[in-house]
Amino acid sequence: MIYTVTLNPSIDYIVEVEDLRLGGLNRMKRDLKLPGGKGINVSRVLNQLEVQNKAIGFLGGFTGRYIEEWLRKESILSDFVFVSDDTRINIKLKHGEETEINGAGPVIRDTEAEALLQKMAVLNAGDVVILSGSVPPSLGADFYDKLISVCKQRGAEFVIDTTGSALKKALPHQPLLVKPNHHELAELFGVTIQTKEEIITYGRKLLEAGAKHVLVSMAGEGALFITEQGVYHANAPKGAVKNSVGAGDSMIAGFVGTFSLTGDLMEAFRAGVASGSATAFSDDLADRAFIEQLRPLINISEV
Fold first, then answer.
1. Which residue in 85, 110, 249, 264 is the catalytic one?
2. What is the pairing mode between strands 214-217 and 223-226?
3. Which among 102, 75, 106 is positioned nearest to 14, based on CA atoms?
4. Quick one: CA torsion of 280, 281, 283, 289, rounded to 10 degrees?
5. How many CB atoms lie within 10 A of CB 109?
6. What is the tens place of the pLDDT at every residue in 204-216?
């Protein structure tokens, strides 16, 4: 089983206005409400790829029930801990460019945090746990450490998609995959990265620190896949970018879902790039038909 963990999910409220007037009255041209949170995005794309998975984490209030009902309608398995406070709402304001206003999220109480750890006690060897996104401040900076510890005790693999110290602390525990973009990779090491060769240099440092596989997305320049066996580049297919939300999550879903089914790293890489690109070219997350349409357009070459 693949489990996705979203500690601070949201409803993403996407609002489009033609001309934003600060301090004045603005009328929406279009609006859309979607379940948000990086792990939830991964689950939704895995579901499109017909890879069984279960979404877990924390939900609360009327906003949490909205997300749970959406996942149920998409036939996605879930087993969230319901908390006392409301799940947050994140505003994505589109007005030529996109402005994001993200909520802080609920306070998670100790009993609620322990309940999630207990849900992970069912993990088995061969399971994969995808840890994605931010940690609510009330959980403390070490909560991912606790989740990783459970994964290791139960013999499950884990993927981590976060940044900064949380990612650095996870590396010695040998995550199956880490997926920074080139900006996040530079920030992680406190450097400026300008060339593909520099991305490879710092990507290899993640391998040396413990990651089993490193996938670095480079927007229109495609992606690099760095392993002990070699370094590979995949092109980005051409298309009009509509959606900045969820492309990285879709890439993880395509990679992990395909790898779990086939064990083929190159096909997993191809599916990851196709899935991320399909979401970037869509209003919502990618659907299976679009992913399959883009998959043959992804060319992989050894660097």
1. 249
2. antiparallel
3. 102
4. -110
5. 14
6. 999 999 999 999 9
Contact indicator for 257, 51 with CB cutoff of 8 Å: yes
DSSP state of 79: -
Where do we find the tokens 């890489």?
269
Q: Is 249 a catalytic residue?
A: yes
Q: Provide DSSP, 134-173.
A: ---GGG-TTHHHHHHHHHHHHT-EEEEE--HHHHHHHGGG
Q: How far is CA 153 from CA 7, 125, 146, in A?
A: 21, 10, 11
d(CA 233, CA 266): 10
- Tens digits of residue pLDDT in 128-156: 999 998 899 899 889 999 999 999 999 99
- What predicted TM-score, i.e. pTM, was given to this entire model? 0.93
The Cα–Cα gap between 269 and 292 comes to 14
Q: What are 135's two structure tokens?
A: 């940690």
Q: Where are the beta strands (DSSP E) in 43-86?
A: 53-60, 77-78, 81-83
